[in-house]
Amino acid sequence: MATTDPDYDPDAPDTPKLTDGDPDPVAKEGQSYVRFSANGGYFNKNIMVQAAGDEVTNPNWSTDGIEGAPDAVISPAQHQTFPKKEYNPVYRDGYEFIGWFTDPVGGNLVEKFEEKLPGTKAATKYYYAHWKKDPNYVAPDDDPAPKPGDPVNPNDEGKYPWEEPGTPEIDTPEPVDVGKVMPADPGKDDLRITLSAKNETRMDGYTYVGDEVTYTILIENLSSPEKSWLDVIARADIPEGLKFIPGSVYLTAANGEVIHVNDNVYNDVTRILALNAGDLAGGQTAKVVFKAEVTVEALNKDIGMTSYAYATLPSEFDVNDESYVKPELGSAFVPTEGWEAFAETHVNVFNPEKVYPSEKVSEKTPPLGTPEQQAEAAKLAKTSDFMGFAAAGVGAIAIIAAIVLVLSRKRIQKNK
């Protein structure tokens, strides 16, 4: 049964306002998925690990979701894994978990899996956690000193007597510098990236020249909360045939903060979009959203996109490097040593299959265009071929000239 979220108020200042929800991952061919998004919160049970500890109610619930063949009937055992609200599957400081919904903002309440998996190949259905402000939440106080009006017991060790006149002094030992406490290393398979595309102009599966497409990169730490990826970098290579739309880049950081990112994260020469996405503790995600317009060049190009994520292991981080400055979230990133060398010294992953603007576009099936656009694309293709031929011709002439010069010099030397 699905009902509209009764507690959601899009205008309330304390309501989480994520621009978009977590995207559909790049699914395997012939597979369909149902996944869960903490939507600004955290999973109490780590993604990809079956939950435990709720033996009284249900020992089998999980936030991993389910997968199988498209349109397959969801089995009773799979139904048992649905992470119901009463199991407290997610948490967020200062908020109450309302339940799972069909959309990141608004949508319908979901209390169980449907009878079947999604019927489209490589399709993913997401259920999103919704939150409301906890009116009784009190932020933790990290200051141990007593506040005005607090009772002070001068004979109790650990109390601070300086606000109580006449009490004996307590010798407080000098704090010991234990250095920075670093998180543990995740496994190298615990860094996951998914890239998805959504044609914002039409919904029939086709893509035309001039269509606007939203791309979403989701980077996840699949390990436990005490294990972190540091200084995560998100990167997308935007192919020819897609024009980056300025002002369209947003980063949703691990803490749920949504940042409107500067356009300088995209390099129009290299066609690479790259930015600092921050640190990711186990169970946390970072998301980058940007838009591109389909151009005439797409009629003759492969416009499949690839994305990458790079991260540093805590054990490889130099805590004694005083010159280190934490990168600003959403700031542009360009490795001084080049991307290839940077990849050799950092854990990195990429989406194995290129992502296209819609389901009816592929490497062999380009977008559609008007007859005029098709003619323009054909002209551009001929110009490109001619320029390539001309460049090759110039190169060949240069080689021949060099050979003639060498032979001439040898002949001159022989005649001397």
Explain the overall architecture:
The structure is a single chain. The strands form 4 sheets. Strands 8, 9, 11, 12, 13 and 16 form a 6-stranded antiparallel β-sheet that branches. A 5-stranded mixed β-sheet has the order 3-1-7-5-6, with no helix packed on it. Strands 14-15-10-17-18 form a 5-stranded antiparallel β-sheet, with no helix packed on it. With 416 residues, the chain is an alpha+beta fold. The chain has helices at 76-79, 339-344, 371-415; strands at residues 32-37, 42-43, 66-68, 90-91, 95-101, 109-110, 123-133, 191-199, 212-221, 228-237, 242-244, 250-252, 258-260, 266-267, 272-281, 285-294, 306-312, 347-350. The relative contact order is 0.13. The protein has 3 helices and 18 strands. The protein starts with 31 loop residues before the first strand and ends with a helix.
